[in-house]
Specification:
It is a single chain. The model has no long low-confidence stretch (mean pLDDT about 90). About 45% of the residues lie in helices and about 10% in strands. It is of the alpha/beta class and about 300 residues long. It is globular. The longest helix has 15 residues, at about 210-225. The chain has one domain: TIM Barrel (Alpha-Beta Barrel), CATH 3.20.20.30. Helix 4 links the parallel strand 4 and strand 5. It has helices at about 5-15, 35-45, 60-70, 90-100, 115-120, 130-140, 165-175, 185-195, 210-225, 230-240, 245, 250-260, 265-275, 295-305; strands at about 20-25, 50, 75-80, 80, 105-110, 155-160, 175, 200, 205, 280-285.
Length: about 300
């Protein structure tokens, strides 16, 4: 993004975000109203709430309004909106409307999703990097319109990025990157590619349970889906994880690297991500079934209170 004011905007966001936030699936999946989830996250002292669900429902931006209305300072992000499910002009219009209505409190997270999900939409998952680059260009310079970008400052946007090319695009055409399902080593690598200015906001699933066997079971129930997705597995290969780690339910070595358990280990791993270059770490608390554990938000906040 070429706006000369972007550096100041990113700096303000960095200060507002603080060190930690929460990543959650759409709240209706775990029986909580969006406004109530946002209010709880803000009350516990987290700086942001990111809502998953790559293929945004038609009323998704309206749902995000409810979360913004249900809080007063909390930053809301999309984690992550798929470029395949909404036209670039519609995505920009929805995001810019939120950014204008709630200044400094909305970030648009964009991603290329994964081949199986995209193919379900009847689309071809070819050249995902080029598709993202073209999508961003169309957001800024809609076809059939003036070469000038639409009036007004666009909503801040960050990209779901794992490999070097998408991280470079995050640096050059967005405000930063939002890696998901990554070890601390990836955070260090991502910061090297991004340089010091862009935002780096990794997600980290966590299990508060201290019993190791129970924690591993919960973490593996969550990880099973992601270990079937080539994008994530290929990224893990970059950091020394082999087939013995990623096949089946995931090795203990892999699970320990990605999904810490127990309050003290969670706090220390969050600190490691921050020391490796993360600006803001998104925590996703998991219950025994591997799903989002709303009831663990308060003990999670207590575990992180020393950061």
């Amino acid at each position: 993004m070429t706006n000369p004011d972007n550096g100041d905007r990113v700096g303000k966001l960095r200060r507002s975000l603080g060190t930690t936030g929460i990543w959650a699936p759409p709240p209706e999946r775990f029986g909580v109203a969006g406004a109530d989830l946002a209010a709880a996250v803000e009350k516990l002292g987290f700086g942001s709430l990111w809502i998953g669900g790559s293929h945004m429902a038609p009323d998704a931006f309206t749902e995000l309004v409810g979360m913004l209305d249900g809080s007063s300072r909390l930053i809301i992000g999309t984690g992550i909106a798929s470029i395949w499910g909404r036209a670039p002009s519609d995505m920009r219009q929805g995001a810019d409307t939120l950014a204008k209505g709630f200044p400094g409190r909305f970030i648009l997270g964009l991603g290329v999703s994964h081949a199986p999900a995209v193919e379900k939409l009847g689309r071809s998952y070819n050249r995902p990097y080029s598709a993202m680059a073209e999508y961003l260009a169309e957001m800024d310079h809609p076809a059939g319109h003036s070469a000038e970008p639409p009036a007004g400052e666009p909503a801040p946007r960050i990209l779901a990025a794992l490999g070097p090319r998408m991280l470079e695009l995050s640096r050059d055409e967005a405000d930063g990157a939002h890696p998901y399902f990554v070890p601390v080593e990836h955070t260090s690598f991502a910061r090297q590619v991004l340089g010091p200015a862009p935002l780096l906001i990794p997600e980290m699933a966590v299990v508060l349970e201290t019993d190791r066997a129970a924690a591993l079971a919960a973490a593996r129930a969550y990880a099973a889906r992601y270990l079937q997705m080539p994008n994530y597995v290929s990224n893990l290969r970059r950091f020394g994880f082999g087939t013995e780690d990623t096949d089946g339910p995931g090795s203990e070595r892999l699970i320990d690297a990605l999904i810490p358990h127990g309050p003290s280990i969670i706090s220390e791993r969050t600190r490691q991500h921050l020391q490796a270059g993360a600006d803001h770490v998104l925590l996703q608390p998991l219950g025994a079934d591997g799903g989002f554990a709303f009831s663990d938000l308060a003990p999670l906040a207590e575990a992180l209170s020393g950061l």
